[in-house]
Specification:
The protein is about 35% helix and about 25% strand. With about 80 residues, the chain is α+β, with helices and mostly antiparallel strands.
Length: about 80
């Protein structure tokens, strides 16, 4: 389901940020693509739990489909690492 896909996506983001020497606090922009508006509440709950007090710019776009038919959500994150 969409919440499980969002959970996995956010876990992947945490790993990638860690590998880059960054963390959730370095996220400055988040874009979520959903294939159905009904997924929004559950997906946002997952993202909010993962980000904690971090509040980046946030956009949600509802689209007809993603690259694979089984994909329900895609999360695109930009982070900036300050020296």
């Amino acid at each position: 389901d969409a919440a499980a896909q969002a959970e996995q996506a956010m876990k992947n983001v945490a790993v990638l940020l860690d590998e880059a020497g960054a963390g959730a606090g370095d996220i400055c922009k988040l874009t979520v693509y959903l294939t159905d508006r009904e997924f929004l509440e559950d997906v946002e709950a997952v993202i909010a739990r993962q980000l904690g007090d971090v509040r980046p710019c946030y956009t949600v776009i509802v689209i007809d489909g993603l690259a694979m038919p089984w994909m329900l959500v895609e999360i695109d994150i930009d982070a900036v690492i300050h020296d």
